[in-house]
Amino acid sequence: MMKLIPQLNPKGWDEMFSNEGVRDSYAQVLNTLQNLNPESLNDKQIQASDLFMNQGITFTVYSDNNQGIERIFPFDIIPRIITKAEWSEVETGIKQRLKALNLFLEDVYNGQQIIKDGIIPASLVASCPHYIQEVHGIKVPHNIHVHIAGIDLIRGAKGEFYVLEDNLRCPSGVSYMLENREITKRIFPDMLATNKVNTVGNYPNIFHNILISLSPRNVSKPNVVLLTPGVYNSAYYEHTFLARQMGIPLVEGRDLVVNNNRVYMKTTSGLQQVDVIYRRLDDDYLDPLVFKPDSTLGVPGLISAYRHGTVALVNAVGNGVADDKAVYAYVPDMIKYYLNEEPILKNVPTYQMENIDERELVFADMENMVIKETNGSGGYGMIMGNKATPEELENGKTAILANPRNFIAQPIIQLSTVPCLIDGQLKLRHVDLRPYALCGPNGVEIVPGGLTRVALTEGSLVVNSSQGGGSKDTWIIK
Amino acid sequence: MKANMLSRVADGMFWLNRYMERTDGMLLTLNTSYILSFDKETDDCQGYKPLLRYYTNLTYDQIEEVQNDTAFILKYIICDSQNHNSVKNLVVKARENARGSQDKITKELWEHINSLYHYMNSPELPRKLEGSDALKVVNKLNKELLLYNGIFHVTMPRGLGWSFSSIGKLIERCLQTISMTQAYYIPINYNLDGNEDVMYWKRLLLSLSGYELYLKSYSNIKHNRKIVEHVIFNYDFAHSVIFTLDLINKYLDCLVKDSEISEARTLYNQFGRLKSYIVYTDYHHMTNKQLEEVLETTKTQLNQFSVDFSKLFFSYT
């Protein structure tokens, strides 16, 4: 039996323990863990890593001699648990948010009433690099722009949920949500059943049905494909996983051709029209005739076909304007404007570096701020004020002053912690949560679960996998 | 429902199986030569030469130099990154093709290829080939390839993917059979009336998994002509030329039937002529010269068929 109660951070929220002891939701899990000796816990951790490796759930790191080394994304075997009541708040909050964001995208690419009414500054939208003029006025099926969203949530010192950012372009990681559960089934077969954990396994079916419903052609079996950048993309495993789970072809740009404003795939029996493309390719690479002319990943003429309404793209083109970190600050206003409701999920306070007063406020308190690029992702270009050197802070200020629109600042929030098995012991590590929401003609559906990302380095608040983060299985218990 | 498949994926499945079949044949040949090298009573004039000539790019002089260096050959064939046809490189290429067609192959098949890839890339593998563990490694790899074939047969759905994969496998197998047969007939000038004993042919037959069937099927006299009958014309031998061509014909039939491409019929006829060349060859009265011609012509025509097949079905770029 191992010593299981780690030292708690008095300023933070731990999901398993309170000052009074273990929380009710974790009692059974803790009991199971207490009945296992450290060796068998370690064995389970190794077993999980082997399962990931053998299934090819890996990414490749290239060394100087061009020898690729396969690595897995670290998986911690101890699950993260969210109660039914907590999940209910998350679910209704995300549904509300997505409803508003879809209305915003429809508005901003058509009448722009929200700008005319002075809710969002026109300059903010116009200066957003992901606002795509080329798709202005396009009518998308059912007016849905965001079909799949990954909303990053964190918990504050009292356990309250905040939205950290919205991912509305090509949110990744859903395969890890599904695979983490499969691995947990193998290493803790009894624990899932006894804890009455909601299933996440129907995600591919729900998503597939939404994709089919978006077909512009009224045919019994529309051709739905998943467009991947190719085998060297770091998320390629996820692309193959989802294509297989939904039973749809996994295509690359070179497999598609546009003829007479229709998209076709090149098959062994000739060209076949494609109706819906779930693309895992950023806007910039979709069509070299419209965006990056040197992109070989996309399909020449695709945007033209999209404009003609002969093919549906999932997610729609141009969604980046709604998940821009500077626009993020206006999402609560969007909710009030479009829905006449108070936001259920709070935003993290966000300072626009374009605003001189807010910028001065941030510069005076840089050590307690996190500086982010408005269009960055994966934790790249982020400055954690409490970890940065004076030189890094100065460089940050210089960069902000050179292009203030490109940055926002947020106060550093101590993310909640969950115990992780590290070096054979339970240690607290910070986590966030990315639930995946699916929007179709029948509304928003969120499978009860999500991807819990863990900052594996002690004290770190950066959970991104590209920065050494790992993941956990996330249980929503009944 | 009309079946279809992406040309790129079909190409990937075709080459996945060609590479795996090449690996299988090469390992079988290596295993045979390696084990027979322990037996000093065996007529060892060929040694590793057929293996090195067909499966590597080594020059004639290089082969002469290394042919008795078993330790070098084991490493060169199994895990040398510089050898483009080493097991390691072939598995890497097979895995790349499997990755590109991962949504069309089964999870079981993918996981098997993937675990083989990790085994081939394990840092301790070269060291294992240095000592007494070498035979264990070769045996393990032989079994992994057998298992691959088993998983392929048991889990893969029949359909277009199956047909493309199988044609890749069978073209590769047929070319191996022809080339290995040539390797044993060239030193005896294709002499069909010669008196080479069964020990001479044992190495060829074991390399093609056909030794036991040969012993069961033929009387113990005048092997030189019987071997031809066995490896080229025996419909019951899974590595014979006629067996592989017959199966290619069957899968090609499935593809052409489903294809709307007019050139598909032309390709089908091209293959029909190739197969007929073997089917209507009278091997009982074949001369030495004719044997040489049959093997060389079939190899050339099969290579041409492979190129034309790829052009027709995989021209996606």
Automatic annotation (TrEMBL), chain A:
UniProt domain Circularly permuted ATP-grasp type: residue ranges: 79-455
Classification via SUPFAM superfamilies: Glutathione synthetase ATP-binding domain-like
InterPro entries with a match to the protein in the record: ATP-dep_Glu-Cys_Ligase-2 (IPR051680), CP_ATPgrasp_2 (IPR025841), UCP005522 (IPR016450)
One Pfam entry name: CP_ATPgrasp_2
Protein name: Putative circularly permuted ATP-grasp superfamily protein
Domain of life: Bacteria
Automatic annotation (TrEMBL), chain B:
Pfam families xrefs: Alpha-E
Residues of the DUF403 domain: 5-314
Protein name: Putative alpha-E superfamily protein
Species, as recorded: Flavobacterium aquicola
Lineage of the species this protein comes from: Bacteria, Pseudomonadati, Bacteroidota, Flavobacteriia, Flavobacteriales
